[in-house]
């Protein structure tokens, strides 16, 4: 008996000086692709999508920081596709992208208005696949993550990293909310879920529950309150 094909494909392109994991996902049945968090390198990502024979269909945004969203307007302009997400609480971060770009040497970065805002419990459809949306505030107030139940895969932006968690020293960050988002929104999805974070290597929720010094089960039992959180960005 042959193994059925995986419902999705994934490739990751590190972008910007902050090496953000721009993640392209696609429906293997239709080759329709979504780019999650195009912070930069727009032409290279579009070219790689074409090289693989995929069809760029949507742009998905986890949150409004420059390295995740700074290239969304350019990609939309060049590909003619919708920008979906994040949650509207991140509007002020999106409005501030041009100033962020000047500060980080990325003057081409632009703000935008999403075609569709996202909230807790929403879904997005890509080809024949459905992705669940979880609102996970803490790193930013409007952060969302994307979860494909059939593939047991999530893209979690800067909520959780391999061995760390998102920073909470930004305007309207909240360390308590971040820990609550991880424990109540991510862990229930299952230990077997593989995830791509906003920076650094992929991991699984189970591995982080065992070993992550910020949010492992043991760490949360010792001190189930907010602690200073510091991740890559």
Task: Give a structural overview.
By secondary structure, the protein is of the alpha+beta class. The protein has a single domain, classed as Ribonuclease Z/Hydroxyacylglutathione hydrolase-like (Metallo-beta-lactamase, Chain A). It is 25% helix and 26% strand. Strands 6-7-8-9-12-13 form a six-stranded mixed beta sheet. The protein has a five-stranded mixed beta sheet with strand order 1-2-3-4-5, covered by helices on one side. A hairpin with a 5-residue loop joins β12 and β13. About 2% of the residues have low confidence.
Concise account of the structure shown:
The protein is of the alpha+beta class. The chain has a single domain (8-222), classed as Ribonuclease Z/Hydroxyacylglutathione hydrolase-like (Metallo-beta-lactamase, Chain A).
Write down the CATH topology: Metallo-beta-lactamase, Chain A
The CATH class: Alpha Beta
Number of strands: 13
Structural classification: alpha+beta
Shape: globular
* Strand portion: 25-35%
CATH architecture annotation: 4-Layer Sandwich
Strand order of the largest sheet: 6-7-8-9-12-13
Q: Supply the number of helical segments.
A: 8
Looking at this structure, what is the CATH superfamily?
A: Ribonuclease Z/Hydroxyacylglutathione hydrolase-like
Q: Could you state the oligomeric state of the chains shown?
A: single chain
* Distance, first to last CA: 45 Å
Average pLDDT metric: 94
Largest sheet, strands/sense/barrel: 6 strands, mixed
